[in-house]
Structure formats: C-alpha cells, structure tokens
Amino acid sequence: MKAILAIFIGLSLLLTSFGCSRNDTEIVECLHTVSADTFVRLRYLVPPKPGESNQALLIRYLDEQHIKIKNPPIILLDEKSGRLMIIAPRADQDKIAVYILPLIYHK
Q1: Which residue has the higher pLDDT, 63 or 5?
Q2: pLDDT in tens, 18-64
Q3: Residue 24 DSSP label
C-alpha cells in the first residue's frame, strides 16, 4: 500500500512539474518535525471532534485559518517518526508555514 502511495505521489509530482514554471504555482514538498506538544497546542486552539485524528484536526485548523489547500491536497502525518510532509504549491506552503511553525517551535 505504501509503495502504491509513493508511486502515485511521485507520478503526480512528475506530471505537475512539466507544466509549472519556477513561481508560486510550483509544487514543492516541505518536511516538518512535529512532537506530541505540537498537537497539545493545536488541541488548545481547535478543540477536536470525537474520534478526529491529528491529521484531520490539522487540516481543519488550516481550513479555519482560510487556507484552502489546492490540488493536490497532500498532507501526510507520521506520528511515530514525528514527521509532517506537506506537498502543495509554493504560495500555499508559505501560508501554511505561518500557522504551522508557531505550533512546532512554540516556547
């Protein structure tokens, strides 16, 4: 299953790279390191719904901040390794970073 997902992501990135110039519409991948504290802070800002996963909570938080992730809306959270991968246009990455980085690096 992971191999199929990796192939799908790879092909989608390959196909989108042919039509994009080096500007804000370029699809880029950002990798962030997250911890349990990141989601404690997130749950304080956005109370989770019953049974809502951390990934769904993060997507809902971004939606409430009026960040509409365009196609492809790829946000992958690996809680075991503490990695959050976001694949989106560069302009959206900048908007997402404004809200994600304070959750990660809050002191």
Answers
A1: 63
A2: 433 446 677 888 888 888 888 889 999 899 999 999 988 988 898 88
A3: T
**How far is 68 from 92, CA to CA, in rounded Å?**
8
- Residue with tokens 């994600």, as numbered in its chain: 100
Between vectors from CA 8 to CA 38 and to CA 80, what angle results, nearest 5°?
A: 30
Residue 30: name the closest of 96, 99, 102 by CA. 96
In this structure, what DSSP letter does residue 21 have? Answer: -
CATH of domain 2-104: 3.30.1370
DSSP for 25-89, written as a single string: TSEEEEEEE--HHHHHHHHHHSPPPTT--HHHHHHHHHHHTT--PPSS-EEEEETTTTEEEEEEE
What is the rounded CA–CA span in Å between residue 35 and residue 39?
Answer: 7
